Amino acid sequence: MISRLMIANRGEIAARVARTAHAMGIDTVGVYSEPDRTGVHVDAVDLAVSLGGRTPAESYLRADAVLAVALAQGCDAVHPGYGFLSENAAFAQRVIDAGLVWVGPTPEQIALLGDKVAAKKAAIAAGVPTTPVYDASAVPPDLAMPVLVKAAAGGGGRGMRLVTDRAELDEAVRAASREAHSAFGDGTVFVEPFVRSAHHVEVQIIGDRHGNVIHLGDRECSIQRRNQKIVEESPAPCIDEATRARLHQGALALARYVGYENAGTVEYLVSAVDRSITFLEVNTRLQVEHPVTEAVTGLDLVELQLRVAAGEPLALDQADVACRGHAIEVRVVAEQPAKDWLPSTGTVRQWEFSPEVRVDSAVRAGSEVGSDYDSLLAKVIAHAPDRTRAAGLLRRTMRAAGVSGVETNVATLVGLLGEPDFLGGDTTIDYLDQHPELLRADVEDPEVRTCLLVAAVLHRALGTDGPWGFAPPAWRNLPIQGQRETLRRLGAAPDDDTVSVEYRSAGSRLFDLRLGAFPEPGPDGTSAPDERLRVHARVLAAEPPSNSGHNLAVELDGVRRVVRVAEDPDGTVHTVTAQGHASWVPVLDLGPHASGTVDSQLTAALPGTVTAVRVRAGDTVDEGQVLLLMEAMKMEHSVTAPRSAVVAQVPVSLGDRVSDGDVLVRLEDDSAH
What we know:
Layout: E1 4-7, H1 11-23, E2 27-32, H2 40-44, E3 47-50, H3 63-72, E4 77-79, H4 89-97, E5 101-102, H5 107-114, H6 116-126, E6 134-135, E7 147-151, E8 161-163, H7 169-184, E9 189-193, E10 198-207, E11 213-220, E12 224-225, E13 228-229, E14 231-234, H8 241-258, E15 262-271, E16 277-283, H9 290-297, H10 301-309, E17 326-333, E18 335-336, E19 342-343, E20 346-347, E21 350-352, E22 358-361, E23 368-369, E24 376-384, H11 387-399, E25 402-404, H12 410-417, H13 420-423, H14 431-434, H15 446-462, E26 483-489, E27 498-505, E28 510-515, E29 533-540, E30 550-556, E31 559-567, E32 573-577, E33 580-586, E34 601-603, E35 608-613, E36 620-621, E37 626-632, E38 635-640, E39 645-649, E40 657-658, E41 663-667
Parallel strand pairs: 1-2, 1-4, 2-3, 4-5
Antiparallel strand pairs: 6-9, 7-8, 7-9, 10-11, 10-15, 12-13, 14-17, 15-16, 17-24, 18-19, 20-23, 21-25, 22-24, 26-27, 26-33, 27-28, 28-29, 29-30, 30-31, 31-32, 32-33, 34-41, 35-37, 35-40, 36-39, 37-38, 39-41
């Protein structure tokens, strides 16, 4: 049996593996980089050892350092989690050669199936339906578009580009290769036809070294952004039972063909038009979405992994696997959907979810979210007797989630979980392209939105402290006019949801409010009368106990809601109720801003590393032209020209690390001519 386990990973997966290991009586050893010194996974293991460095290449991808820690700490096994070294056949072999147990497939299986081209050939030999693949340097000139450029190693959507125009293929190959090399240490890419209007369906398999192999049902993972999944569920709702059986049998046939050991996932595309099946790849590791399989089967996949790695035969056969109910997982990511999924960084202020769901989290209140690693913050999983109830439970959970400090996709997830096509199971890989409205943060019920806005205003009115604590924000010493606030909802376009509020005290904890633009004063100096809201407000104790903020009871015209309110140091107010949530930024009107130079200075939207510089001082550029590339949160981002101009200065160079707000390119100011 394994007695001391090295977990060679970080974040939620490292903490999740430790949880099962401890339940099995296994001691755990972790590793961490400098940014992760106070991370969740560091506290989840029995002891953790610093690898130094900041980036993956400087820490978690250092196979020699990871193995040295395992040996020095007396470990007898290594669990790689997913990502990083989990599909590195050479590292797996080194672990075995050092006399340790590798928790995963054999190095030979990782090498074969981790290479997507070799995996396709094995699938064909095993009788699994698939499409042809092409070497990136020898793509037939008559190959029909669109195509996908994909990394031969790794996964998670990194090193993948969709190409619809043949003229863009070469640049897509270069960009995918750069990203793949950064993420996996291998820049090899290939090209395959792109299947339109398809469902992404996968089958969980597990085998032992005694020749037994079974599947644990299927999952659908079609809803993706940037080729990375954000919603996964089991079982797949989009397929009939005949298609489901073909997927299961194909996965088992391939697993038996290669003598597969430990956990893995066989991935397919299923055409939404004719139900034809195309084999994609095999992930020779645990998947991010494994919790939905655990929920419907009642099995602990990490425990199965550890027992198989220790040499035990599987304690169940195919007849013992029964899927009950339906499970849906959503990924909470530090990204801004309305801004092309731009990653967000900062300090997590609030971090609260309902206890009715499972939360596998990489952060907690106080965690710093930087740009060195993936933007995944947590996976939230709901399980119910049927899909409708699972979606309803998860939607309610996300609607009332208390998450602040970094911008996330929570509002998009709330909208998605109630969207008719999703509820009907009509979710193909282009789902988000077909539903762009989901990318905008919104609170659906206008009465709820008004309640949240009022709570933010009253929080600032009631909770003022400091040397001017006697006066609310924007206080007026004028009896004929009320106090005024202007707030903008975070995540909305700059002028899209900015609301002015005027309020007056009407007694103990009673206020009169007027929403909307302030009317001009009349001849007597008072504002023209308009519709007002009468509000009762009462500060409640924080129950259940929370890491920040307080509960505020708000009664609007006889309708009472309890709103959780918290404020960041920068003045941003976060409001959460069971029917929705919103964050509000105070707006100060200090007069018109200077114009003419705003788009002449291009700055970094978040910390990262410059990976390519395409221009130099004196170059003439066109609107939309790529000026430089930078990598942040393991993704490549383009900095483009906002207008036709002449480059005045490029203050950065290839390989430079930049911070949020650093100047990347300066353009000549048209107003100077």
